[in-house]
Amino acid sequence: MRALELAHSAVRDRQQTHTVTVVGATGIGKTRLVRDFLLRLREAAPEGASRVFRGSAREGGPAHEVFARILRARFGIIEGMAPEAAKAQVRAQLARVLEDRKVGDVAYFLGQLLELSFQDSPLIKAVEGDPQQMRSMRRAIIKNFIDTDAGKAKEPLILLFDDLQWAHDDSLELLSYLVENLRGPTLVLCLTRPEMLARHDGWRRAGAARHSAIDLSPLSDGDAAITMRDLLAPCGDAPEVDDLVDSAVTMAGGNPALLEQMVRLYHDTGVLEVTDDFEDERWSVHTEKLVTVKVPLTVQDAVQARIAALALDERVLLERAAAMGGVFWLGGLVAIHRLAESPPEVWEGGEAEDVVAIRAMLAELVDRDYVLRLPDSTFAGDEEYVFKHNLEREALVRLTSPAAARRHHRAIAECLSFRESADTSEEYLEMLARHREKAGATALAAVSYVEAGEEARSRNANAKAAELLAKGLALLDQCDPADEDLRMKTLHRYGDVLRALGRNEEAHQAFDEMATRAWRLDLRSMGAIAHQRIGRIYRDTGRLDEASRQLTAALALFGQAQDETGTADGLDDIARLHWLRGDYALALEYTARSLAMRRKAGDALRIASSLNSLGVVQQDSGSHVSALESFEQALRIRRDNGDLVGAASTLNSLGAVARDMGQDERALAYFQEAYAAAKEVGDRNRTALILTNLGGMHHRRGDADKGAALLKQSEDTADEGGDKLALAEVRSALGRAYLERGDLAKARRSVEDAVSLYATSGSRAQQGVALRLLGEIAAGSGASSSPEALAEAAALVKQSMGIFEAMGNELELARSCRAYAALLRRMPGHQSNADAAAEAAQLAGRADDIFAKMRATTASIAPGAFQ
After folding, report:
1. Would you tell me how many other CB atoms lie within 10 Å of the CB of residue 265?
2. What percent of the chain has pLDDT over 70?
3. Distance (Å, rounded) from C-alpha 576 to C-alpha 861?
4. Per residue, what are the HEC states of 239-287?
5. 340 CB neighbour count, 10 Å cutoff
6. Cα–Cα distance between 532 and 547 in angstroms, integer?
7. 783-807 burial string, b = 16+ CB within 10 Å, else e?
8. Is the pLDDT of residue 506 over 80?
9. Largest Cα–Cα distance of the chain, in whole Å?
10. Predicted confidence (pLDDT) at residue 224 exceeds the cutoff of 80
């Protein structure tokens, strides 16, 4: 309690976020601790108490369920509220908090979590095909809203995330980001079992000094005995109480919930009996029954004893409820009950007898602490209940026969299919799918899983979407015949989310199947998409010849399908391919064609994307002034459209061009602005790369201490980023920065890590560049390098030459040829070795020829050709 109170005081006094994670086993008292803490706060400041919003996760719930519950509480959205009324309420409150700034974009992303559809903006439309940008924007917008909202009140905002052991990875990823990046006066309380920390072993480190953990331990025997005597207080001073206390303490192992379970067990078995004195309830102890009661030795034994205490009709009712899940509804129980009943001759108005009987039985089970009725129901006009103890529900599921379970699931699915929520909500679509699957309705279950996956994907919950779409595809494979149109669209979405998650091999398999089915049915547009996605996978993993075949096929099919947007994307894809190969003439030609199509369509952010691609080509070919112009045009468009993710990328590129041109002040300003933008959107990998560039600039300007500090910050950020390719890029940049500082040991370690990461991810072009840099590091910067070091360096650079030769990447091949020639000239006895001198001259000449050809290509582009 003191730890929680100190955390709240720190948030209030310092006006900055602090997170407390409370960890403990089931029944150890996590919820009770936080409930009492919040009561203390309310009693201490009844007029100006902190606002508290609570969300809890449930096993098998939707991807962002815990956030949806918190946001519904924040905006006062109650179950059953009409969508338009809920949206109006969200808009009005957002306008008050944000003072009408960016309300549309904030509403769109919060609506994804609230399962409310808000109109998207031009910015959203432009980036909706890029899962990484959408994810970064959503995280930044949610973070900024919470910070702004927290700053509006005098007392700290409290966000309570309960039962995080059930939270989906998408929710935990978003929560981890908030723990790291929230800055306003917010106290974040996280309650979880130890198994969540096992799944996410870096959780305790998130937020660093602004995050503390409280581990709740079991009660000592003495405290457990005191607790049990409190629970048995209505027994008075009966001598038999000592026996009850000793048995309970021995069995419970210091778990308070299990002590309570023991009291319920004594009541269920008649050891304890309630008197009729309602003003001062007393319990009598029946010692003769205590002798015959088998006291359980484990939690499972206690659960089985509780179930054994149920009457047959009560157990059947709870088995039916358990089939629905941890939460269940009266309407579902009625539907299951009536499967085996005959309908009345005339169905008259009023409440039927069976409904009255089921409700009465539920009321009795509420009194006996088996279930709990919720104040509101998800479904209008129904009654919603939850199992008080999940272990009892699980035991009831195991006791239900397979045939009875199928009947239950069939009735539940039929009931859910007529509920309005099941048509729009990921949670209820998944619930419907699960019950249909368990009832044996395979085709219908497949449709529902796919629809649920689409809902998850629309909210950028890619891990959840992949899970649901995979289930849908697996069931479609069992259907004969299957809905082929649905299968094709599902393969497309499934491949996209797998690629967004970095699972390239699985994505390739999905797109391969999609291409095969599109060819069989002569569906050219679908075939184009499949080949395009496969081509991108090949391109990103350095298999450029295979990428060329796939992307060329995709471009042809887009043209035949008269898909102009697809054609423009296809031109950009091939332009990037030629850039990787170092063929700038073709890269510029394809970029120009794509840019012209996008200007004709008036697609601002896609125009910016093409201009950014053009700048990269111009920068690599040495046309720095042209590159600056292209990047600056792209930056203006991205700023005008609020594209912070794109702006951060372009600012970083502008800084790199200015640095290469020797304009250090200008470069530093660009990098600093890029860092601020990347930090705002919470893009860790981009932030790490920009920090590396900033550190290098400070070192270059003579501020070694500042440079070293930024490089260390970059390294720490990159380690936690999660994206292997981005991490490899940062490691490589760090190696270059350490090399320039003369710290060869750190440079070598960083670049060796980069080479390994590039090799693992299959990114051959970047692996070749890193090998060349590693060769430069191995050779050292002094003239006294040993022959062994120079030989090792030459072998590394020659390996990079082999990679670029095989890929057909002329630009990088030229750079490696030049580096290899320079190493040959440093070898001992070079002047007297005619063969070595000739090889060096030949390689240097080859490099010069390639560079001259590229300069001629870029110089031949007429000024204004891309305006």
Report:
1. 24
2. 89
3. 18
4. CCHHHHHHHHHHHHCCCHHHHHHHHHHHHHCCCEEECCCCCCCCEEECH
5. 8
6. 9
7. eebeeeebebbbebbbbbbebbeeb
8. yes
9. 113
10. yes
- Cα–Cα distance measured from residue 604 to residue 542, given in angstroms and rounded to the nearest whole number: 30
CA distances from 315 to 294, 310, 322, 325, 395 (A): 21, 6, 10, 15, 11
E strands, 34-73, are 52-56
**Range in 473-487, 502-516, 615-629, 825-839 the model is least confident about:** 825-839
Side chain identity at residue 614, one-letter code: L
- Residue range 329-357: average pLDDT? 87
Rounded Cα distance, 9 and 693, in Å: 38
Element holding 372 (H helix, E strand)? strand 371-373
Q: Please name the amino acid found at residue 837.
A: A
pTM: 0.66
Higher pLDDT, 835 or 483: 483
Question: Which segments of 646-763 are extended strands (E)?
Answer: none
- Look at the block and give the residue holding tokens 């309908």: 343
Joined tokens for residue 523: 């569906």
CA atoms within 13 A on the CB side of 623: 24
d(CA 10, CA 210): 10
pLDDT confidence tier of residue 862, bands split at 50, 70 and 90: very low
Residue 863 has pLDDT above 50, yes or no: no
| Alpha-carbon separation of residue 675 from 49, 409, 693 (angstroms) | 37, 53, 10
Phi, psi for 386 (deg, rounded to 5): -135, 150
Which residues are CB-neighbours of 359 under 8 A, at least 6 positions away?
Answer: 330, 383
Instruction: Round to whole Å and give the CA distance between 369 and 609.
Output: 60
Q: What are the residues facing 214 on neighbouring strands?
A: 22
The residue whose two tokens read 């490691």 is: 731
3-state secondary structure of 293: coil
CA angle 446-448-453, nearest 5°? 95
Residues in the chain: 867
Per-position DSSP letters for 772-797, written without gaps between them: HHHHHHHH-SSTT--HHHHHHHHHHH
Cis peptide before 185 (omega within 30 of 0): no
186-192/211-215 β-pairing: unpaired
507 closest CA partner among 491, 518, 520: 491
Phi, psi of 76, rounded to the nearest 5 degrees: 70, 35
- Joined together, the tokens standing for residue 614 give 């053009």
CA distance 436 to 416: 10
pLDDT band at 194 (very low <50, low <70, confident <90, very high): confident
Q: pLDDT value at position 161? A: 95
Model confidence over 429-464: pLDDT tens digits?
Answer: 888 999 999 999 999 999 999 999 998 887 777 888
Would the pLDDT of 550 be above 90? yes
Q: Is 214 helix (H, G, I), strand (E, B) or coil?
A: strand
CA distances from 543 to 237, 764, 771 (A): 82, 8, 18
Identify the band that residue 830 occupies on the pLDDT scale cut at 50, 70 and 90: low
Give the chain's radius of gyration (CA, Å). Answer: 33
Q: Distance (Å, rounded) from C-alpha 231 to C-alpha 459? A: 46
Token pair listed for 338? 């009536």
Span 723-744, pLDDT tens digits: 566 677 778 878 887 887 788 8
592: number of Cβ within 10 Å: 17
Token output for 730: 């940062």
Which amino acid belongs to residue 460? N
Tell me the two tokens of residue 430: 């998944």
Residue 176 to residue 153: CA distance in whole angstroms = 24
In the block, tokens 């279950």 appear at: 445
DSSP annotation of 161 reads E
Over residues 47-72, mean pLDDT: 84
Distance CA(756)–CA(765), nearest Å, equals 13
Distance between the two ends of the chain, CA-based, in angstroms? 65
